[in-house]
Amino acid sequence: MAEALALRARLRPYRAVLASRARSQTSYRANFALDLVSSLLSALVELAEVWVIFHATTRLGGLEFRQMLLVFGLADVSFSLADLAVGHCDRLPTYLRAGTFDVFYLRPQPLLLQLITSDLSLRRLARVSVGLTALVAGLALGGVSWGLTAAALLATALTSGIATFAALFVWAGGLQFFLLDGREVTNAFVYGGRYAATQPASVWSRPLKVLFGFFFPMAFTGYLPTLMLLGLPGPQWLPRWLGWCGPLAAVWAWAMALLCWRRGVRHYQGGGG
Amino acid sequence: MRRRLSRSVSTAGTATPGTGTPIVETIGLTRQFTVRNGARRQRLTAVDDLTVRISPGEAVGYIGANGAGKSTTIKMLTGILVPTRGTVRTCGLHPVTDRRRLARQVGVVFGQRSQLWWDLPVRESFRILAAIHALPAATERARTGELVDRLEMADFLATPVRQLSLGQRMRAELAAALLHSPRLVILDEPTIGLDVLSKQRLREFLIAEREAHGTTLLLTTHDMGDIERLCDRVLVIDHGRLAYDGDLAGLAGAAGADRVLVVDLAEPTGDLTSVPAARHLASEARGLRQRLAFDAETTTAARVLAAVTETAEVLDFTVEEPDIEDVVRRLYTTTRRSPEPDPEPREPAKP
To answer: A272 vs B32, B34, B45, B81, B345, CA distance in Å?
Structure first.
């Protein structure tokens, strides 16, 4: 009980900021509705890309359209939720240039937690809904043999997927300290990573498999859990049982993200890095 | 050359001797930056061997030209920058490793960067900051009430920050930095861009705040008025080195911080050379506009103006405060002449 109260007190600063962010975003209703619609459209276009490919072929990397929906849904729900929560980390260069990052130093909370909770992109909810629709459709049509194992796998894949994408944003944020104007560079792997995650890893070339299969562990967020859920064989280098290893991928991504962040902050403070 | 200079002047002041633990203590504090200039890398020293002690309750003005190292010092005091060499203790803490504990005891206003949420009403920003500093509800109410009252913010508490005037915003920034009742308040150019009335209001508030809570003040400014009205001790930094540490009278004595009265007269008049306690500097437009320098320690603008009106009809007038950069530059040229002869050729003062 006392612990719960202490935790509540510890979370109060973050809750206060986030609640105010949510209120300010939704207070202009027309504006917020427009934001939602534009976010929805861009998410639909991305889903349509997948669908268009299947007009030319019936299988891609060994997967049918209904199975691809599962890959897309898993990866996209994870990405959108991570984007909603920590996607604004890529605004760090703006904060650095305007000096607002210095203000974080004057508050008694960890810098990274302050950055993460400094905003919330509620308009991403529209994107989450598209991903969720694809996921539900994929689960219903894909031929999943339901059971406790499948449910556990699904839950593991989603939570570790969200964590992995969140780490990717923080990772990119840490690099911004060095690049200063490097949003394009980091966007390449954040959004490139998102795109890769919604594709079957079996069509990737070997360098891509190394890059997005392991270094930025994107295959663990959509493709590998799908193989496991559907009982399909994995391609070379990416055996199907890796579908259970999402948490490991998330831990790896966070380790790299925190390392980058730490080095970045050291670099910013000029303490060597 | 500079090293010897700073030693010879650092004892010139009459700063109150420290009692108890200092609230700010730096020993040999140095910060260098590596700057890439094309392919060449250059090391610039922003703060050079700075040794300063500030006792609780003092009000210290920290002045120097742009790029002299003021902001770099403040960043090291608050843990934003790591020193290259030397030590720094703020509120007895190590700013970098104890940053979060220090943040509870220090309040900072950066004149150019806001701590408020631009799209939220002022009141809401205060509420969030109270949560950030974990103020109990009763403390939050009392302190917010006190600040709103003393900074006269009641009229714009419900206004979003982005719609505030500069004067209102600075008051809100100050309240935001003071909400958690910090022991040490650091103000970086708090009055920059403000009109005379807003400046005066801000200064009066800071004086009252010090009296009520014994807060230590450290402020950087380009405004001599800030120093005169708020500070009992002045630190001058030049090229990263401490050039002066003492009271304002001593600084004015060392550098001659004259004010200038500019009068616009009704008719062309001969040079006003016989005004008591004032020195005629220049005349323009056949004597329609004249500039008179006077020392604020020995006379007042009103007295000089009165003396002028006895001989000519004054249409308009302005008082120019001494420019800090001027004072600092003069401080250098005067201290360089003494106490030892300068072996190097003296650089001509910049216009």
So the answer is: 12, 12, 16, 11, 39
Phi, psi (5° rounding) for residue B23?
-85, -30
CA distance B336 to B351: 18
Task: Report chain B's C-alpha Rg in angstroms.
Answer: 23
Q: Which residues neighbour B20 within 8 Å (Cβ) at sequence distance 6 or greater? A: B55, B56
Residue B22 has pLDDT above 90, yes or no: yes
Helix (H, G, I), strand (E, B) or coil at B244: strand
Nearest to B132 among A105, A109, A270 (CB): A109
**Max CA pair span of chain A:** 61
Token code pair at residue B180: 């958690």
- Sort out which chain B residues have CB atoms less than 8 A from A269's CB and list them: 80-82, 96
Please return the burial class of B245, using the count of CB atoms within 10 Å of its CB with bins 0-12, 13-18 and 19+.
buried
Q: Are B153 and B189 in contact (CB under 8 A)?
A: no
Beta-carbon separation of B106 and A106 below 8 A: yes
Structure tokens at B263: 């009068």
Give A43 to chain B, closest Cα distance, Å. 28
B137 touches chain A (CB under 8 A): no
Minimum-distance CB partner of B131 among A12, A98, A106: A12
Quick one: which of A99, A59, A73 has its CA closest to A202? A59
pLDDT band at B347 (very low <50, low <70, confident <90, very high): very low
pLDDT tens column, B265-315: 998 888 888 888 888 888 888 889 999 888 877 888 899 999 999 888 999
Query: A54, exposed or middle or buried, with CB in 10 Å at 0-12, 13-18, 19+?
Result: middle
User: What pairs with residue B289 in β-bridges?
Assistant: B264, B284
- Residue B218: strand, helix, or coil: strand
What is the pLDDT of chain A when averaged over all its residues? 89
Sign (positive or negative) of CA dihedral B125, B128, B129, B135: positive
| DSSP letter assigned to residue B221 | -
In the three-class reduction of DSSP (H, G, I as helix; E, B as strand; rest coil), residue B50 is classed as strand
Question: How far does B114 lie from chain A, in Å, by closest CA?
Answer: 7
Chain A, nearest residue to B186 by Cα? A106
| pLDDT digits 0-9 by tens, A5-57 | 888 888 888 988 898 888 888 887 888 899 899 999 998 998 888 888 888 88
Q: Give me the phi and psi of B247, to 5 degrees please.
A: -90, 175
Tokens of B58: 């003092």
| Cβ under 8 Å to B: A residues 13-72 | 13, 15-17, 20, 24
> Rounded to a whole number, what is the distance in Å from the CA of A232 to chain B's nearest CA?
50
Residues A171, B21: Cα–Cα separation, whole Å: 42
Chain A: give the shortest CA distance to residue B128, in Å: 5
Q: B154-163 pLDDT, tens per residue?
A: 999 999 999 9
Are B131 and A9 within 8 A, CB to CB?
no
